[in-house]
Amino acid sequence: MAPRPLTPQEIEAALAELPGWEFAEDRLRRTYSFAGHFPAAAMVLHVAQIQEETNHHADLLLGYDSVGVSVNTHSVGGKVTELDVGLARRIEGIAPSHGARP
């Protein structure tokens, strides 16, 4: 079954469980901060691995000590679906192991 766009209420409920994430311009977004470049780069590599496993990909922006994540589902016209929420949850789950700051 193809994913369906989430309602504003469903997105709001998902964000309540994803601290630091926001909904803007039809995307879920979050920026993580790190103690330096290497942990940020390691986080990007780990996220890339998860994306390949799930066949669902976010836009990632690697800075010196930060990683920006922005995701929506292209197959439903660039709207947020449960695929995006699931990816955000997975990313949120690994962030502490890379030293992401709250």
UniProtKB/TrEMBL annotation:
<protein>
    <recommendedName>
        <fullName>Putative pterin-4-alpha-carbinolamine dehydratase</fullName>
        <ecNumber>4.2.1.96</ecNumber>
    </recommendedName>
</protein>
<keyword id="KW-0456">Lyase</keyword>
<dbReference type="GO" id="GO:0008124">
    <property type="term" value="F:4-alpha-hydroxytetrahydrobiopterin dehydratase activity"/>
</dbReference>
<comment type="similarity">
    <text>Belongs to the pterin-4-alpha-carbinolamine dehydratase family.</text>
</comment>
<dbReference type="Pfam" id="PF01329">
    <property type="entry name" value="Pterin_4a"/>
</dbReference>
<dbReference type="InterPro" id="IPR036428">
    <property type="entry name" value="PCD_sf"/>
</dbReference>
<dbReference type="InterPro" id="IPR001533">
    <property type="entry name" value="Pterin_deHydtase"/>
</dbReference>
